[in-house]
Automatic annotation (TrEMBL):
InterPro entries from the UniProt entry: AB_hydrolase_fold, KfrB
A Pfam family hit: KfrB
Coiled-coil annotated residue ranges, if any: none
Protein name: KfrB domain-containing protein
Domain spans labelled KfrB: 278-325
Protein's organism: Alkanindiges illinoisensis
Amino acid sequence: MANIKQLIEANKNSYARLRNPGSDMLDELKNYNVVKYAMDERSDHGGLAYYNPEDKTLIVAHRGSETRRDWLVTDVQIAVGVKETLADMAAMRFTDSVIEKLDRNGHDIDLIVQTGHSKGGRESQMCVKKLVETTDIECIGMTFNAARIHGKQKNKDIDYPSVNLRVTGGSAFSTDVVSSFGQQLGHNVDVNLPNVKNFIQAHKLSTFDSMIETYPELSNMDIKDVMREIKKGVQLASIEQGYPGQQQNNSPQDVKSLINHLTGTPEIRTATPGTVTKGQIVAHTQTQVVQQLGENSKFFMLHDKATLSRIPDIGTNVQIKHNKNSSLKAGVEHLAPQQFPKKMTR
């Protein structure tokens, strides 16, 4: 099986290979054999492929921006909305060449996992799209702060098996910018890491080391299991705590378990007509939004989704104002940084 920890390592190796092209010792990945590394001369696309002969899983990692051509040509093309770059095409050719090499050597492929960081994440998604639409081999994608794809690339009738993990420190100023604009091929899921202080730190591949520390169980789970729970709408914190499918229920015990990792002794309350709260949205259940009332506070407020004018995203800091007339929807307003509550006041 492949897991998030291995995918992060594979992506790191794709960068390391560019800096040290002659050192295949940098390619080691537990339980996997290196199939191929390639650097495309026309586009500077870099790809590194691994194969597990036991479960017949192929991992294809596409390197993010690291060369002048990446920054001055490919990244600019992505920014202005070019539908398909030379690097995208090179990524698809690289994937095809790896599949053909394994086939020639008599190795079956049961699962292809496409992965990449930043620009490489976009290339990964382009490969997932092509494989899903043209082959019978099962293919999934897990990317890290991926650059957007062109909207017209997506077939609206296909639910592409692709997830992008976007780092956020809990505010617009500490959220990855690259994966925040445009469309992702599949789900765009926030990884909430409170130690991230700005968008530059948020974008770095090395920041995902903090994800491994924050979500150790999740990072070692079979990637297919993680993606299945994400597709259901289960939050990463819930998956980490071992509650797959938890959003299908909504008991106080479940909610307490969901947020217990944030503070040892949470005090949970339910919003009533006339309640006004400020704080960060830390979790969703199927019917409720969980708000932490102040930085590092032990107090949490549950808001029924049906009572809200809109559903705020996890990681956002908002004021939620419930009307005294319970027939009216509660207002949800984003807070500027200086408005973030430091602690709950009675």
